[in-house]
Amino acid sequence: MQSTQQQPSGRQDADEVIVVASPDLANLRNTKNLIDNVKGARLNDAPSRLVLNGVGMLKRPEIASAEFAKAVETDPTAIISHDAKLFGAAANNGQMIAEIEPNGKTAQVFADLASALAGRTDVRTQARRSRAADRQTRSQAAMTGFPMARAFSAERSHTRKGI
Prior knowledge:
By secondary structure, the chain is mainly α. Helix content is 54%, strand content 10%.
């Protein structure tokens, strides 16, 4: 006897959908397709969340977080920077990131993500995210030689001198 009932795909039954992606071209295409498919299947539910993982990995072509978010039409809930030393130590010791570096930026990103998923985001979390995005924009501008980085550097030097 064979069942004629279809197995649920899972995406309609989930409370939240979280897409974790690295910021490269292949992941951009796959993430865009996945988010669009989930959006079509879950018309009355909350939009999918995006987590960018491995941001800032050296010697790897990378799409800027803002450009990635714009292309997939979803703002990232969390941006996890690549830190080979931290993640390697945690994996080798069998520990969580928060156990290795409890006051570190990466541990805070994970705590903020957990708070967002639990519906407990507060004003401090949003302010931290805003400052982090501002720092990331400045560092990306500096790496590309964008004029904004030079303007910002000049602005900071005047501020330090009290001008």
